[in-house]
């Protein structure tokens, strides 16, 4: 499938990909298996095979062969071990012991070496792939030397692998730091079949340039060796640059830039990042308290210290003051997210949403984050399950979903997983509200039919996107649920006169 794109190179971007032909939304542009899979940096104790969290203390589950963390299920099925096999043999050979930890929720520095070690093993096993795909990847060692993690990596990974693990004669310090840099800058998050988080290196996808408005989406199939399939999300003409994304698109520019600078060592200059209004969405804008209709926006989105100015009056404030206010709001959201899943949590999020109404632009990313929480709660918590929701709350959920869809049309346009998930959340209240209004005599047969057909189109689009996911994943399972709901809805539509 390499004919779908070609790789070019320039001093500003380095290596990047462009479409080699006109591409249609949903068209597959590449498939690849990971070069390596393993834990993220600063991971808490986890099973080194399936990545599920484990107790890292003395009584926690350990590999019966090497003594490193391994859950009981993986321990009982040693014949199926894939990812832990080589490091297990190395630890046994060199008598490298896992040091038990007291806090199993905190990061376990000893595990920082695992994914780089698996990369080194893969380098020896697949030299042709290393030479063709990985040796040319960016790893920014010069920039990383100035960062806070260089010394940590030197101690926890480089010296540990070359010392206690006995790899001094196999891998130089430079090669190990190269591997660490490649992982830090190019790895993507993966989810295991059970939904646990790790990271994987996909060199071909890594060729795609970053943009905060990507046009390439990918799905990873853990049940098939973490095979990755990348598609274009929108129609793309021949010669257009292909973009993936290394940040969460539904955060503000300052947050995205901070993440990219700290982990990827570059400043994003995509059109969204350069625009103080974030493509007209005002996703980071505040409401002015000094005038009626003014919005406070940054004078330079790429500079955290830049002044923020009102569009309607002379009011100005420091960038640091804005960032402090956002941190306080985010802390409030984080606190509510720790509440028990129930009606009290829903009420608290609604209260917070109203609290910020006079401060934030309606589509601000803080309010968008709260919308996501409310969408998840409405229809699921006791007292607010879907059949119990009155019309006014069905309308509320519809409004919340449509607001997020509007934002996604700008930041994740086309056939994206995020869009599919919101479409599924939206179809339910549309159906239930239409049925309720029909029973009340507000809707007659034909308008009811149109509302149900609208919901059917949403389910159809949702299932067509989610069927790209691993069938065993939550998204893959939801694809089948959506298909079944679509069949039932179509049957209901048939009997409406």
UniProtKB/TrEMBL annotation:
Organism lineage: Eukaryota, Metazoa, Ecdysozoa, Arthropoda, Hexapoda
Designated name of the protein: SET domain-containing protein
InterPro entries found in the cross-reference section: SET_dom_sf, SET_SmydA-8
Gene3D superfamilies noted in UniProt: 1.10.220.160, 6.10.140.2220, SET domain
């Amino acid at each position: 499938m390499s004919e779908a794109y070609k790789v070019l190179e320039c001093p500003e971007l380095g290596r990047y990909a462009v479409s080699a032909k006109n591409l249609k939304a949903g068209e597959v542009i590449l498939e690849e298996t990971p070069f390596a899979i393993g834990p993220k940096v600063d991971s808490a104790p986890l099973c080194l095979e399936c990545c599920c969290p484990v107790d890292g203390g003395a009584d926690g589950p350990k590999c019966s062969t090497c003594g490193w963390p391994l859950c009981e299920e993986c321990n009982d099925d040693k014949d199926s071990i894939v990812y832990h096999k080589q490091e297990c043999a190395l630890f046994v050979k060199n008598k490298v012991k896992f040091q038990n930890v007291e806090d199993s929720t905190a990061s376990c520095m000893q595990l920082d070496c695992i994914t780089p070690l698996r990369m080194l093993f893969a380098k020896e096993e697949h030299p042709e792939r290393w030479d063709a795909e990985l040796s040319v990847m960016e790893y920014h060692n010069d920039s990383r030397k100035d960062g806070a993690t260089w010394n940590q990596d030197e101690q926890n990974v480089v010296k540990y692998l070359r010392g206690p693990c006995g790899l001094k004669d196999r891998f130089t310090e430079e090669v190990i730091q190269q591997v660490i840099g490649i992982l830090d800058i190019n790895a993507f998050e993966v989810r295991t079949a059970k939904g646990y988080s790790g990271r994987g290196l996909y060199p071909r996808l890594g060729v795609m340039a970053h943009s905060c408005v990507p046009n390439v989406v990918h799905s990873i199939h853990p049940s098939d060796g973490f095979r990755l399939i990348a598609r274009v999300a929108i129609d793309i003409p021949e010669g257009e640059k292909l973009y993936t994304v290394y940040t969460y698109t539904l955060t503000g520019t300052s947050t995205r830039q901070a993440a990219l600078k700290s982990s990827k060592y570059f400043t994003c200059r995509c059109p969204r990042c350069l625009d103080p209004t974030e493509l007209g969405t005002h996703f980071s804008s505040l409401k002015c308290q000094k005038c009626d209709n003014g919005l406070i926006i940054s004078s330079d989105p790429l500079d955290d210290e830049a002044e923020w100015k009102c569009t309607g009056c002379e009011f100005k404030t420091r960038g640091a003051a804005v960032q402090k206010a956002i941190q306080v709001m985010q802390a409030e959201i984080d606190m509510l997210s720790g509440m028990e899943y129930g009606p009290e949590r829903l009420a608290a999020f609604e209260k917070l949403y109203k609290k910020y109404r006079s401060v934030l632009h309606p589509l601000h990313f803080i309010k968008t984050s709260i919308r996501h929480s409310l969408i998840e709660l409405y229809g699921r918590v006791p007292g607010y399950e879907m059949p119990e929701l009155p019309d006014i709350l069905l309308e509320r959920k519809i409004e919340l979903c449509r607001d997020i869809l509007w934002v996604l049309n700008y930041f994740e346009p086309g056939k994206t997983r995020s869009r599919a998930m919101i479409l599924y959340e939206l179809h339910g209240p549309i159906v239930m509200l239409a049925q309720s209004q029909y029973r009340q005599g507000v809707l007659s047969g034909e308008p009811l039919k149109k509302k149900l057909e609208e919901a059917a189109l949403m389910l159809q689009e949702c299932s067509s996107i989610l069927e790209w996911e691993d069938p065993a994943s939550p998204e893959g399972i939801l694809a089948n649920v959506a298909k079944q709901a679509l069949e039932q809805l179509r049957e209901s539509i048939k009997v409406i006169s």
